[in-house]
Structure prediction request, 384 residues.
Amino acid sequence: MAQLKQETYNKTVVLVGAGMTNLQVITQAKKFHALQTQLVLLDVNSFWFFSGMAAEVLSGYYGLKDFHLDLRLLAKQYGIEFVQDEVTALLPQQKKVMTASGRMLEFDLVSFACGTISAMPEGDVPAEGSFPVKPLKNVLQIRNEIETCMELFPKKILELLVLGAGPAGVEYAINIADLLEERRPAPGWKITLLEAQSKVLPGFPKKAVIIAEKMLKASAVTIRTKSEIQHVQSNRIVLDYGETLEFDLAVVAMGNRVIDLFMQAGLETNENGALVVEPSLRAQNYAEIFAGGDCAQLKGASFSQSTQNVRQQGPVLVKNLLATLQSKPLQEVSGSKCPVQFVSLGKANALVIKGNTVLEGKWVRTLKQCWDRRILKRYRTYLT
Ligand SMILES: Cc1cc2nc3c(=O)[nH]c(=O)nc-3n(C[C@H](O)[C@H](O)[C@H](O)COP(=O)(O)OP(=O)(O)OC[C@H]3O[C@@H](n4cnc5c(N)ncnc54)[C@H](O)[C@@H]3O)c2cc1C
Prediction:
């Protein structure tokens, strides 16, 4: 833990979750220290993993070292306190957060960047053989399980299911196919991508849907649309019309939700559980509570989970936390109404989507990889 000169601090800003908005606060720690304010980072993991790279960890393109940040090192570098613990409750009136290990942390200001968790039909404990996309570190376990199965059962046809064909499901299905294709010639495996709606990438432009379906088929991924999953049980799923499908491994990519933190604290949330915040990223009626990234919903804006939007919020969050400490006026997030979104389509292709514009190709994949590496490099540079 960092050597804190606690005697010089008379205020505490607690950062819940090392999401991107809070990472930007950490890199500005000096400005907080100058105001006699200490920063305390609380995260359930000692590493932060970058979602943009997760799918290509499956194909083997990225290794562990490429897609994570060591939070302990980051905290040490900036002279802030790091506490590895899960925040389980917020007490807004008392200005405290409670953790799974029973700690109670007092704050003058608190900033939430705790992202989302996977939405699962059977509650929060995954059934045997199934792995939710979130937490992102699961990607390492998914890869490990697949490799172990290949080694232990060389003659078995591996049955893999990807549940949900949003961008995460599509990315995971194609990248797992790439891994298997390289390691185990067909027909040693079968991947089925299931989706409740009538097409993959629901809500995306038609061109993106057509390209994704073409790439999935080329990767030998079977697509089953209009297949609503009712139950995910131990090594089998049950569809709405009663059909069951057995699996050796299933990836649950059926959407994300925010932990029940804000609703339980009596704060206003959207249907996903995200805290409704003003354009300043401050909670309504609570001047001490801020939130950014996927766990926050900007009042009056459409809900959008994208790295690009999150990165735009970071600098405003830093300014507004500092402004609140000095009783100065707050700034507002301008917000990108239409963020750029990349979707990895394996070794041969990727999509970039902005509004109705869709581009594809190997060059898009290269662009995505440069973009993702640049994001992590930015934080790594601070670590050296
Ligand atoms: C598989 C996948 C691929 C994606 N690909 C892209 C992409 O290519 N481009 C794009 O723009 N967006 C992509 N997204 C969306 C993108 O991940 C998010 O919009 C962005 O990462 C939001 O980050 P965040 O800062 O809100 O939180 P995160 O980066 O998710 O960080 C949340 C942090 O909070 C911690 N935490 C969680 N709960 C608690 C708790 N109770 N107590 C303490 N700590 C906690 C976590 O350990 C984590 O460190 C993808 C998402 C997924 C799931």
